[in-house]
Amino acid sequence: MLTVSINQIPLASFALAVNNVAIISSITVRNNTPNNYEGLKVKITFNPEFADTVVEHIVSLPAHESWKKPDIQPSINTSYLCNLTEKTKATTTVQVLSKDGEVLAEAKKDLEVLDYCQYWGNTFMSQYLAAFVTPRHIALEPIIKRASELLNKWTGSSSLSAYTHDVPNRPKMIIGALYEAISEQNITYCYPTATLAKHGQKIRTCEELLSEDRGKRGCCLDMALLMCSCLEAIGMHPLLILQDDHAFAGCWLVNDMFTDSVNDDSSVITKRIAEGINEILLVETTCANEGNKVPFDQAISVANDNIKNIEKFSFVLDVARARLAGVQPIPQRIYNGHEYEVINPEPDERRHSSPEGVSETFTFKKDEDEFSRFDLWERRLLDLSTRNNLLNIRFSKNTLRFMVSSLTEMVQLLYKNREILIVDRPDDWETAADSKDLGERINLNDSIMDLLRKELEKDTLRSYQDPKALTKTLTSLYRSARLSIEESGANTLYIALGFLKWFEPGKSYPHFAPIVLYPIRLERKSANKGYYMVSRGEDPLLNETLFEFLKQNYSIEIPDVTAAIQNVKGLDIKYILAAVRKAVMEQDKWDVIEESIISIFDFNRFVIWNDIRTNRESMSEHPLIDSLVSGKLNENMTEEADTVEELPSEDIALPISADSSQLAAINDAASGKSFVLHGPPGTGKSQTITNIISNALFHGKRVLFVAEKMAALEVVQKRLAAIGLDPFCLELHSNKTKKSLVMDQLRKTTEVVQQMGDDAFAKEATHLDELKRELNAHVERLHKVYPCGLSIYDCFAQYSAIDVLESSTIKISDDYIDALTPELLRDHTELLENFQSAASVVYEYNNSLREIGMLVYSPDIREQIQSLVGEISGKVNNLHTLGRSVTSLIEYNADKLSKEQYEALLMVAEFILGEELPSILIYSLNDNLLKTLKELAELQGKLEAQQSELFAQYNEHILDVNYTALRQRWMEAEQKWFLAKYLDHRAVVNTLSSYAKSGERVIDNDVIALCDQISAIHKLQGEVNDIMDYLGNTYNIKRELKCLNASTLQIYHERLGKLLSALGALQLNDSNISAHLAQTLASGWNQFRELNGKLLNDYIAVYKDFSANVSELEELAVTSVKQDGEDWLDGIAKTLKRWSKDLVNLRSKVAYNVVRKQVCDNGLSVVVEAFESGIFAHSNIVNVYRKSLYKQCANHYISQDKELSFFQSILFEDKIKRFRKLCKEFEEVTRRELVVRLSAMLPALRKEASQSSDVGFLQKCIRNGCRGVSIRKLFETIPDLISRMCPAMLMSPLSVSQYLGTNWPQFDLVIFDEASQMPTCEAVAAISRGKSAVIVGDEHQLPPTNFFMADNFSEQHSESEDLESILEDCLALSMPQKHLLWHYRSKHESLITFSNRHFYKNSLMTFPSNDDMATKVSFEYVKGVYERGAGRNNKEEAKAVVKEIQKRLSDPQTASQSIGVVTFNVNQQSLIEDLLNDMLRKNPDLEVVAAQMHEPIFIKNLENVQGDERDVILFSVGYGRDKFGKVAMNFGPLNRDGGERRLNVAVSRARYEMKVFSSLKAEDIDLYRSNAKGVQYLKSFLEYAERGKVALLHMEYGVKKKAKDAFVESVAKALQAKGYAVNTNIGSSEYRVDIGIIDPESPDRYLLGLLCDGYNYVASHTAHDRDVTTPAVLSLLGWQTYNIWSVEWWDTPEHVLNGIIREIERVKTKESAEDNVDDIVDDDIEDLEQVEDNVKEEVITVPNSNAKEYITGNLPIRFADSAMFSQGYYTDSVVEDIRTILEAEAPISRRLLIKRLINNYGISRNGVRINTYLTEVFEDMGLVTSGTEDIFYWKDNEQLENYSGYRLVSEREALDIAPEEVAQAMLQVLKEQFAIDEDGLISETARLFGYASVRDNVLASMKRGIEFALNNNIINLEECRYKLNS
User: Which residues contact 418 (CB under 8 A, 6 or more apart)?
Assistant: First the structure.
């Protein structure tokens, strides 16, 4: 069947019809049959027929489908509707007809049809009420005309153009004129229906209202519509306001409109009608009815009051906006019975007054100034929750509301600094207004307003309260404000002027936030006169909290109203309130309320805010704050290399043991650097901070330690107290610090007795440093990197890593090692790797081409070689046959011939075939003969050469001349006189010239040379003859050689030489064989050649041809075809046969040759030779080289180091023992030294001081409990004294700003702890107090959250909780960073492994325990259900946790372990707490056990567990499957950015064990449904808890795997060979135990740990790390350790191995170790909170060394006549006495010196003559003086320049004391009393000199001393108080 449904409006009216409102919204036809329909018609009819019938067509309607037609608008029968006088019922009928007209379906629906003027109420389409506003009605013309006339009368202009002006005054005038014009119509008022807004009413048209015939009657809605019609008619934008039973009109004064036609929020009106805004004007239109005669301005006031009645407000209709939405006026019908006409009634006589002008309208501009970081910090210091009374004022005992007549008048009164009396409410006044509800306000029309105005003129202000309540409230306010001033130094009492009424989204109740805060104070003249309010004379404040709240939460920015605050005429409150109204204009229901209250406005961090706001300029000069503001690191704070420098022990104070990472931070802090110190969990942050503070105090610095949490402060405070420094540290954490506690701390400091120092510290430091150097030296020697890039230990390790037999190693020269560099080693290794690769290819075919040395390859060359191989192989046999024949010929028998011998046969054959030689030469041939022949040939050659030269000019007979006689005669003639000389010379020349061939005379100059030449020839001839004689005598061959020239002799020599060489090669140098050959040839040389010539020639030819082929082959193959030990030709044949098979591999051989040459060229031929000689296989080439190299390097370097050469482990370990002991002792010495130094800096606190001095003031405060003086006042009064007494202060960020004023001396160092949780805005104030800052924190732990500022934490809205921290901001600056890396908390490495691996990239130095193979993180699956909604807990899990606690408390073995429970949320935490309390109530014995634990059980959630730790942590995940079995991937704060940091905190709290209770398993967490990092890490953690270390194998997260040490592995291998089960590289972090011997009795633990001095050892940067801290930690973790020293193992491994075995056996039998490391376990490592104060030495009071007795000079008694005395008769004795007096009493005044002198001489008076005489004596003596008017004499210049001390009571008068001495006494006073005013300083100094009272002379002397001390910078004057000059 078909069905029809109709959706239509509930009514129809003429107004809706003319605005085309669809009567039928939609018609739907549904085909519920399986049949398809086509050609259907839908017929719509109305009864009665107020609209025409409508027909729609459906072409096709398939089975089970629908047809829908929206917005059906039939033609309206307007005639019917116009004539309808009452509403009637109607019916809409819809029929579905088939093609045949059959009705297939039908539906009917009723509706109402209204008459022409009926308004239907606000339940339906309220915007169409605008249709009854008829601006074009003709009846309006008289009213508009009259209004124009009135306007002209008032303003001089009749123009009705309202929006052409910039100010709203003209529009108001126009509205007023219309109001008056309507009033003149005398329309009578009639009451509307009681339910006007809801059910509507009939509306009177303009015709009906203004027609006399109709009675001129109208209700409020009629009058409002009339006013709106007139306003629209002149082009203005009217508003129609409807209340439940009332209506009135309004209009825009500006050309604007609302965004919606209808608004049900009255605040959109109230905000715009307010003073200063003036955008809308309201008018009560019924005031214009006949009989009211209410002026226009009063009509406005009535309307403004009406709009405040929020309960009755229905809506406001913006007519202009409705027109834009298409709502048109209905056509008007003005009927007089016959025709339409305009009726103008006669106006009544009425006096018209011009309305008041619109009050000033403000314009606003946006604050375009750039927001600085200071502004941001200030705003973030403001609490933006509704708990803050700056956002949500809450009435309490400290809140008082005033009756306000005018805020402006109140402000003016405050600006005049008048005393305003606060009184109670009037007795005769009653009001329904609630004094605690700012939403209810006194009606401005109440009679009380006049009273309030008059009283305000008399400086009186009324409250809402009765006298008793008022007194109570004012007293509370007075006391609270006074306390705030005293404790924080900041005023918190304000009068709030104006409030913003605002609503939270979805909330119906309003909040009220003050807008302007005016600083005031309350004064009370007497108990009877009441309280007065007085301005503090400070600038009023804008509620920045509110402005920031609006900006952050609602994106509302308040315009810049600074000018209104700083107005010279006073606070412009109107402007400010208008600005806020303007900004919140679009917020529904929001408004500005002009009310006033006084209250305490003290938000949590107001003090810090006030501090920053007040001191912004000075703070901005601080380098770190400047960096934070600018976002760029100050150039003086740049990053430096992170190195660990061990300072001399005397230069650093470490009262607590410190590892190297801590030491680096301590050193940097001491050097004044600012840096970030990363402190992951358990790395000894508090220990490091304590050391930093101690070291700073040691160096005389002041330190401020700042922590947000009291717990963090207490840890450091306890540590400082444990080392004896608590008297010098002042703790002021909270702003609620009790004054008595502060005074107790200061009293403790005043009771400190100064201690006497000694040189023990320096001596111990020197001894300690010597031991350090010796221990470090071993490590440095062993791990020193030599030029080759290797250390000795590297060589040990690398040698051990290579598996090559020792016998295969080769000898590498020391020179090679000395020249080796890392680059060269790398290159050589790579080269040998290439060589090894090439060799591996060549040796695949047994190196069959081994003889080939080719370095170049080509296929052509290979073919040539192949061809030659074949050719040579074919000639071998022929040559072999010929060779054998030749050997037979010369009777030489040999089985095998070498190449040289075949060559020798060639030479023999050539000799035989050559020129015949005397056989005697062959017969006698030997080396001596050959040598003599060579000598003979050479001499003969020289002889022939000289003869040839001589005979060229002279004949041969010249040799017969007596050249000796001629030469002698020539020389003798040289000595004769001229003529004789001439004659003798001529005779000699003539003789010689007779032999000249040319006949020319011999030149004189050539005579001597010619004689010498002849002499030389005769000499050579003699030598030739001698050799010939020798040959003749020795070999009988003189005859054969006598006539031979030199060239022949040379030929003989060469031929015989070849023959001798050949015979030698043939081994035929036996003289018999030579003789045989000579005989053979002598018997017939030619005959022999004829017989054997062919054989010899064939041999020569074949050999040379063969040899040429071989040479060609050798040249191509770069080789020598040679085989030792066999016939040369046989060898060649075999070689070539081998080659011919494998020449295909020639390319590989050439490649091998190339690499081989490179290897040899690089000095590695020893490797090649060893390899090619077969010492090792080709696969070991590189390993043999490396192993040989490492061995040789180690031995070479050890031999060069004397200490390593003679290393003895027993001596070295004894040195370590002494070092450990000394370290412990030195900590105690350091603590004592600290106390000595700090106590020495204290003034004389135990000595009663002047009341006016700083010390006296402090003593007074201590005595009276600081009565009447606040802590801040105390600090402001004596800042220098307190900072000197307590140079270390421990404070919170709040207390820093609260107690330390701007006059507080700057700290040298500020340390922040838990900086990741400290907002930057809180930290900057503390940063500004110091020169440098150390920011300590962990970026992987909790950031600052609102949780720490509130009472609870919102998991649902946790995404808005996190704030920026000072740690994050400093890291963003790339500030220098240090890292604490040694982890001590976890007593089992598995407890920290997850965090270390996932959060710290495995950078933490954690230590394995001796049961490392097990895990201490366990997982217990609980089959629980996570309750969603309000519960958000898991009951089964909670029960399991409590059951575990019960179990542990019941077991004596576990009852002593402290327990902590960590949950994911507050709900689970609360549930576990409740269940635990129930369990303990039921088991009182367990409650006793729990109470006696050394640490209480805690149950905390992720947000507040940071900083806590326990022995055992029970972790309740809570989340799991819900009751439907579903797992949501919402894990609270873990889902947000940084959520993983919370997990890190939670999983790093355990010391000994952690147990995870979870209804979730890792597999239940689906990472496809969440990409939150925290969720990913939770899954990983659950997997780790379930599976242990194996779960980490695939969770490396970029962690670098620790490489194994091959040396360690070799030791382990040796132990395994002895049958021991061992593991190596034990641990999960950078630190590893080298070797662990598994206990055979308990395989899950280690029996013994072996520690080598290898890479783990050297990784510890200091001797203390290596030899103290590491063994101590391992001992605490259950290890027994034994050291292996690698140098000893290298030299005597068996000896060391036996020592290890002995130690294993000893441990097995549980004998006590000889070296028990328990004695060096640090208390700080074992229990960080149990440090004893060991400074228990006897204290010795240090006497006042500056005070001295006055000693008078011992003068001999003398008597003298005064006249004789003055005449100089006693000058010698006088001079002597003067010197005696000065020696004892200087400095001494002139008056006292003269007095002492004359008294000694018995002279009673100092007369003029005596005075003149002594003046001359003084001058003659050249005495050293000081002073001008009053002269003082000194012993010498040195005493004057270096005077110190003062002399106690003496008989001197005050003026006899030198100013220098007075200044020294003042110095003592200020040392004792620190700071003092002038009167106190004078009286205290006078007392030191024995003067009880201060009179004229004493006063003058003291002031003279003050002047001297000031001029010489001994003291200085600050704020009327004298202090020591720093």
Answer: 459, 534
